[in-house]
């Protein structure tokens, strides 16, 4: 009988660093595969349930699938499933980078009121009722949402620069912004026509049901615009977590970096809100899961945050269709129910640890 | 090839922090100690050189006026290590030091890894390489911050109380190593430090500040006198002068309030 050989002790720091990097990459790959599996389950789930194998075959070889199934999978369910992914990625990236630049574990487009501001922007476009050229209505909604999201972001940024403003004050300020814009939204609902009111309710609860290929395309475009900025600033953003003075000592123009990243976060939050309404806490929970799994080196933190956000959205999309049989629950309600306890636990923990 | 400060003034919020700083010089290959009581302006002076604090006057490094350079350009010539090193970012020690190098030097990844490893070894940090910053003690975090500063290989290194949280072993080890590094790399190292004994032992030159002005500058033996310690620090001290060795200073008693 032979005893198991103990694992050789790796004392060399480069080897240990490489082991850590491999572990991080494996985790990212694992979450990516899990997300992919959820997308297929999401597509299979609905009023008519399809076997996963059939869904997979329809996706891989659409010409060989029955026509009805092909239409349902490709024209109805795939855009919804992909929209969940794109919105999850957008919100989680926006949350991750807002937490980084504001040095605030509670920051995300929803908790800081940026999503609410975007909702009001979208609502303004809807109640104005402009939409003659194809896509122009979509662009108007997105444009309005972006402008108000940007205004709210800049306000938060300005407040964060004031002396004596701490993590809790900033979140309270975000809540104040949220109240303000929710009141504005309420006012618009009060004066809106019946048709516009229905759309406004959709925006305030958040839903994937209006997803289409063109909307998925535009939301992806926003990601394509912002992602290179985040990747290019990766090292500098990681340095920001060491503290402003350390980052500045490394030659980083902290003010300019913050503004540029905040602009990108606003665009991501605004496009997400413009297409699926207010979806809360995905931008909060996703980055925290990523931080727990791979740490805050942006080379791994960024992809892991994005994938965590996508996974949460995809799972929530499945839950929204299956929790109450026959009824499609608004996805924003579900993310709020999942995210709220997490948010509270973060508030209680934020005084200690991590953000000293 | 020196660092030379002339006619340096700095005001923060309407209060004059540095006034008429002049005649300060630091040479490559040696450590210069910056000393003075609390509030004398040591950190402000280092920040002013690093471009992190607005100041008027002349800051010449190797004949080049630093004030004409942007923050990014300045960071290629120097690195300022702040006093605060409390980051609890979820980064491993190795990642944090690699980050400092990658934001300064463009080079093949393998070379960067080897350089980081060498720095960690020199600071006895290699066993902690995979530990997260949040899991380190204050002294360990301070050594990581020193490793970040050194791995950037700046021609001018400005260290603001780099040994304040270190135990005696690591104080001596770090200062020994920095002295060696200054000589080997022929770089200028300026260290703000409170311990006059360490300042005398490890520096070839001392800048002494009092209330935002230069009280004295020169070799430790010339600067650290009974009269100056009484005037600047308001202390009585015992000073020994062993042959061919730096002065040994033992503070004895505080004689009156410094008023700052």
Automatic annotation (TrEMBL), chain A:
A single BP term in Gene Ontology: siderophore-iron import into cell
Location(s), subcellular: Cell membrane
CDD domains (UniProt xref): TM_ABC_iron-siderophores_like
Keywords on record: Cell membrane, Membrane, Transmembrane, Transmembrane helix, Transport
Keyword Endoplasmic reticulum annotated: no
Membrane spanning residue stretches: 27-52, 72-94, 106-133, 139-158, 170-192, 212-238, 259-285, 327-348
Listed InterPro entries: ABC_BtuC-like (IPR037294), ABC_transptr_permease_BtuC (IPR000522)
Signal peptide: none
Family: Belongs to the binding-protein-dependent transport system permease family. FecCD subfamily.
Name of this protein: Iron complex transport system permease protein
Molecular function GO terms recorded: transmembrane transporter activity
Predominant location category: membrane
Automatic annotation (TrEMBL), chain B:
Domain ABC transporter: 3-236
Coiled coil: none
InterPro entries: AAA+_ATPase (IPR003593), ABC_transporter-like_ATP-bd (IPR003439), ABC_transporter-like_CS (IPR017871), P-loop_NTPase (IPR027417)
CDD domains given in the database record: ABC_Iron-Siderophores_B12_Hemin
Endoplasmic reticulum listed as a keyword: no
Keywords: ATP-binding, Nucleotide-binding
GO molecular function: ATP binding; ATP hydrolysis activity
Protein name: Iron complex transport system ATP-binding protein
Organism annotation: Chromohalobacter marismortui
């Amino acid at each position: 009988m032979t005893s198991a050989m103990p694992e050789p002790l790796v004392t060399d720091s480069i080897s240990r660093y490489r082991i850590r990097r491999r572990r991080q990459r494996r985790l990212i790959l694992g979450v990516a595969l899990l997300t992919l599996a959820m997308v297929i389950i999401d597509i299979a789930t609905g009023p008519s349930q399809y076997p996963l194998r059939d869904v997979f075959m329809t996706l891989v070889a659409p010409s060989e699938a029955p026509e009805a199934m092909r239409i349902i999978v490709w024209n109805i369910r795939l855009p919804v499933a992909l929209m969940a992914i794109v919105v999850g990625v957008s919100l989680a990236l926006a949350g991750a980078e807002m937490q980084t630049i504001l040095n605030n574990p509670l920051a995300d487009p929803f908790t800081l009121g940026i999503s609410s501001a975007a909702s009001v922007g979208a609502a303004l476009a809807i109640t104005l009722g402009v939409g003659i050229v194809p896509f122009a209505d979509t662009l108007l909604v997105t444009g309005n949402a972006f402008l108000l999201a940007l205004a709210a972001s800049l306000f938060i940024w300005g407040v964060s620069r004031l002396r004596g403003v701490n993590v809790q004050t900033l979140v309270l300020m975000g809540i104040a912004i949220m109240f303000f814009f929710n009141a504005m939204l309420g006012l618009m609902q009060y004066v809106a026509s019946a048709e516009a009111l229905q759309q406004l309710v959709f925006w305030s609860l958040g839903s994937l049901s209006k997803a289409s290929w063109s909307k998925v395309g535009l939301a992806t475009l926003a990601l394509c615009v912002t992602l290179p900025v985040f990747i290019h600033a990766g090292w500098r953003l990681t340095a920001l977590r060491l503290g402003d003075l350390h980052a500045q000592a490394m030659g980083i123009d902290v003010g300019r970096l913050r503004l540029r990243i905040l602009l990108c976060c606003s665009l991501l939050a605004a496009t997400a809100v413009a297409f699926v309404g207010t979806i809360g806490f995905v931008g909060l929970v996703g980055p925290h899961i990523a931080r727990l799994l791979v740490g805050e080196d942006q080379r791994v933190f960024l992809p892991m945050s994005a994938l965590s956000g996508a996974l949460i959205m995809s799972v929530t999309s499945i839950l929204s269709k299956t929790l109450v049989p026959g009824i499609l629950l608004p996805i924003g309600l579900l993310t709020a129910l999942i995210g709220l306890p997490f948010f509270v636990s973060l508030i209680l923990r934020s005084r200690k640890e991590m953000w000293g | 090839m020196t660092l030379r400060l002339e006619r340096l003034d700095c005001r923060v919020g309407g209060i004059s922090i540095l006034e008429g700083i002049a005649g300060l010089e630091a040479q490559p290959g040696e450590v210069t100690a910056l000393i003075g009581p609390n509030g004398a302006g040591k950190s402000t002076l280092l920040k002013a050189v690093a471009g992190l604090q607005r100041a008027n006057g002349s800051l010449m490094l190797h004949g080049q006026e630093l004030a004409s350079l942007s923050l990014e350009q300045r960071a290629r010539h120097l690195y300022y290590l702040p006093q605060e090193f409390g980051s609890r970012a979820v980064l491993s020690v190795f990642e944090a030091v690699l980050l400092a190098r990658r934001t300064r030097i463009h080079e093949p990844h393998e070379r960067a890894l080897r350089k980081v490893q060498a720095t960690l070894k020199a600071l006895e940090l290699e066993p902690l390489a995979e530990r997260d910053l949040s899991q380190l003690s204050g002294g360990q975090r301070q050594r990581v911050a020193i490793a970040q500063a050194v791995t950037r290989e700046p021609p001018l290194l400005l260290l603001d109380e780099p040994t304040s949280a270190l135990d005696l072993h690591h104080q001596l080890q770090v200062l020994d190593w920095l002295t060696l590094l200054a000589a080997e790399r022929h770089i200028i190292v300026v260290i703000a430090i409170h311990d006059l004994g360490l300042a005398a032992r490890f520096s070839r030159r001392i800048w002494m500040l009092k209330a935002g002005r230069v009280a004295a500058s020169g070799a430790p033996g010339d600067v650290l006198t009974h009269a100056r310690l009484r005037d600047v620090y308001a202390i009585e001290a015992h000073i020994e002068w062993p042959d061919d060795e730096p002065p040994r200073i033992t503070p004895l008693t505080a004689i009156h309030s410094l008023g700052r």
